[in-house]
Request: fold
Amino acid sequence: CLKAAGHKVQLASNPIFKDFVKSRGLDFAPVGDNPQEWVKQFNAQTSRKKSALAKKAILWRIVGSTVEQMMTDAWNCSQDTQAIIYSTLALPGYHIAEKLGVPCYAAYKNPITPTRAFPHPLHTSTFNLGGINNRLTYVFEEQFRWQLTRKIINRCRQEILKLPPVPITGFYSQQQKQQLPLLHCFSPSVIPKPSDWLERAYVTGYWFLDRPDDWQPPKELVDFIAAGSPPISIGFGSMSDLEAKALTELVLNALVETGQRGILLTGWGGLSNTDLPDNVFKIDSVPHDWLFPQMRAVVHHGGVGTTAAVLRAGVPSIIVPFAVDQPFWGQTVASLGVGTSPILRKDLTAEKLVAAIRTATSDEAMKARARVLGEKIRSEDGVAKAVEIFHRHLPNY
Reply:
C-alpha cells in the first residue's frame, strides 16, 4: 500500500527473505543473519525444564549478539531514507532514524505499550495482575531487555552512528518522551485499545499479506481435503523442537484417538518427516489464507501471525505455546472463547491434545464465536489504516 501511494519502499530484513520480498515487487536490503540459526541456538541452550525467565534471557542474548551486524547492515542501506518503520526485533531502526533526523514509526505485533489493562505479553504470567501490577510488568520487561542489550547497542551508537549512548534507564523511556507514532498491528476486535494509551498509540488491525494471485495449491493437497471431512491443520511455524519425532508421534496418536484427519505443516522443524497414515497429509508450508478456512480447527504454537490467520479464518484454535509471546496469545484466544485453553509445550501430552481436539470440534458455541470474530476481522483493513496514520504523521505530506 505504501508503494501504491507513490512511495519508494525498501524492506530491510534477514537474507533468507530476499526472494520472497522481491517476488512482491519491493526493493530488498539484507540485514543481519539467518533467524533459523537463532532458533537452533535457542534450542541448543534451553530445555523444556528451564524457566520462562531463563529462556527469555537466552533469547535476548542471542539477539544482542547480532546487533553489531544488524546496525552496520541497516546503516549502510538507509542513507537515502526519508522515514523508517521498525519492528520489535529491528533494533537499529530507531537509532538510525535519530542519526538521520527522519520520521520514525514503531510497528508492534504485540501490545507492548505500557498499560494497566493487562500484563506485558512477554511477562512470565499471562494472568491479569490488576492495575499497577500490570503496569509494573512493562517496566520489568523493558528493563530486562534493555539491560541485556544496552552495552552492545550503546557501543554501536558510538562507533557506527557517532551518537551519544542512551541513558541506563533505556531507550523505551526515551522513545515515549519523543512521542513517536506507535502502530499496533492487531485487531481491535481481539484487543481493543486500552483507555490509558496515549493518542499516538494506534490499534490498526492486522497487516495481512495474502497469497499471490497466481499461486496454485498442490493437486495432491486439494484432492486430500476434498476426499473426506474437513481436516485439522497442525503446525508450529518457526518453532523447532529437539523432540520433533516424539511430538509428531504424539500428534498422530491424538488424531487416531479422535478419528480426525490431519494436515501437518512441518515448518522450521517443529514436526519431523516421518511416514504417515492415509488420513494425514504432510507439507512444509502453504498459505494460511487459503488453508485455514477449509479446516475444522487449527493446532498451532500461538505465534502472532499464525494466530491472526486462524482468527480471520473463523475456526477454533488449539494453541500449544513454546515460548515468548505465545502464552499471551493462547490465553487471549481462550478468553475470547474462540479456542481451547492453551497447553504449554512442556506440559503437552496425547491425552491433553485429544481433549482439546474433542472440545474444538464439538463445542458449537466456540465454533459460532470463531465464525463471528472471523467476519469482524475480515471486514477490517489494518494495512490501509496504518498507511493513513503514516501519512498523518509524515511532515509535509
Notes: The first helix runs from residue 18 to 23. The chain is about 45% helix and 10% strand. The domain at 219-378 is CATH 3.40.50.2000 (Rossmann fold). The chain has two domains: 10-206+380-392, 219-378.
